[in-house]
Design goal:
The complex is a heterodimer of chains A (439) and B (180). Chain A is built from 22 helices and 9 strands. In chain A, the strands form 3 sheets. Chain A has a 4-stranded mixed beta sheet with strand order 3-4-7-8. In chain A, a hairpin with a 3-residue loop joins strand 1 and strand 2. Chain A is globular and about 70 Å long. With 180 residues, chain B is mainly alpha-helical. In chain B, helix 7 packs across helix 9. Chain B starts with a helix and ends with a helix. The chains are: A alpha+beta (439), B mainly alpha (180).
Amino acid sequence: MAKNSHEIRDPIHVFIRLTTDERTVVDSIPFQRLRNIHQLAMSYLIYPGATHKRFEHSLGVMELASRVFDVVTNQDNINPTIRELIPEISVEPKLGYWRSALRMAALCHDLGHLPFSHAAEKMLLPEGWDHEHLTVEFIQSKEMQEIWNSMTPPLRVEDIIKLAVGQKKLKGTKFSDWEAILSEIITGDAFGVDRIDYLLRDSHHAGVAYGKFDHFRLIDTIRILPKSNYGDGSIEPALGVQEGGLHSAEALLLARYFMYTQVYFHPVRRIYDIHLRDFLLGFLKHGKFPTNIYELQMISDNNVLSEIWQAALAKNHPLHEVAQRIVMRGHFRRLYDKNPEDLSCNPHIGQVVFDQIKEVFGQDNIRRDDYTQKENAVDFPVLRNNGKITSSFVLSATLQRLPVASFDYIFIKPEFLKDGQAWLGKNIESMLSMVEKED
Amino acid sequence: MEGTKRQVVILSLIESMKNCGSWCGETHIQKSLYFLQTMIEVPTEFDYILYKHGPFSFELRDSLGEMRGNMLVDLNSRFPYGPSYRSTETGKALVERYPKTAAMYQKEIDFIAQHFSNLGVAELERLATALFITKEAGKVSIEERAKRINEIKPHISVDVAAAAIQEVEKLVKEFYATSA
């Protein structure tokens, strides 16, 4: 008799176990495609170990999703208000269906990633498209639909889409409280398993210890709780933790902050993303990735890297210069980064420096990249030892002081770096006083 | 509305809510801005969806995060409440540099702050959900809208939903009567 349980070794979770149905998904073309998509784009040029792919991350997210599901649906762990608010949580036979749907959604949540993951996704897709939109296309493709229908019981494709992508990206779709909570298990700001896995995995492969935290303790203490910290009867359900898990939750959020500042926002990583984008704008037909999934799956990181290598070696290749910057480490250098002192004088200092320096050195010789971490999830419910539910922000002095990671880099062609530094030294004071006013 | 002007509206709303005694937690800001944008049509253009308990904008959440990163707002805490937003000196200076935007919507902002700042989160959730369903349903009776709310959010009874719809309609009339 064929076995229904299979194991894959994993450097983060040791063993990832999957069913035959899940293995069918793993063996499909849309999933195998993830073997050729780097998790961290070209970060391996800074952290040589960071060559891991979306494939193993997706397996890890599936493994963690069911670990969290098993904890929060354990009947001993269910808060009485939540039992009343979300009746589905007490219907044992249906929980099996939702567990399977959640694992499949977790497995498929990144199917739509472009080559090199997030690098310049916005510029390289037509207006209105993003990788979540492409994930939906893959999940409802004919090949995947056949897999969902062949399962016993069959999984509803709309459930997999909802849980994989979440309400933030599916604006017209209504979610029940139960569906919203399940999608938060994967995509949530505070305890989403997507985040838990990528922090641990990226940290492991990059060799940067900051991303590690006690995820075993954290997952054991995750609960669905009414977010009733205002004491006025609001019972909105949210993922929170037992008091004993608060320190591991703090460690996760600190890990996230440090990984942002040390890895994801590393200036050299960011400029390689820009050089890669510049290359892809020339390499792709009309400067965009196709949104037809069958055309998209013909392009992988491997094709692009091969073309970059050839362009770097051939002087007459139209993309020779940018390819050589990537291959020969001739990347633009960081000239300016915003800092609290400058920001307090001029909140738009990055834009001002960029506008001014472009005029002096020419647009082709300057690049800008700015980003601010969207939400650092410092407010979640904590079930205290006395049975009360309180905001994490109130209980944790660490979370009260957790900064928001943010950068605004101006880069310059290496040959202009010295002149650029001299120009900046002379002009920064006047730019700090160029405060934007209303028209 | 352009990004900086949207930030100015958010900062002005926070200031006005604080002056009216609001704790200014994220839910208070989310729901108040929803009323400002949807009930009296200040064009902040945040994308709202009907989330677990009422209208919610992920876009606004991201904007508040960005404003924290750029030191325009910060968070404060007082037991037993959750985090409270407040403008920083940099945020106040930004509002001063945008006097036209701040003045253009001040009356609307003050109206929302005066009527909603002292409501609890549960009450804000009910009223905002009533407004969301009213906008979505179009010209249908209060009873039908109340049933729809109860269908989507079973913890809000039909009677409570109907009362919330009536309350919202009364506020809309009051705003337009005072601004006529």
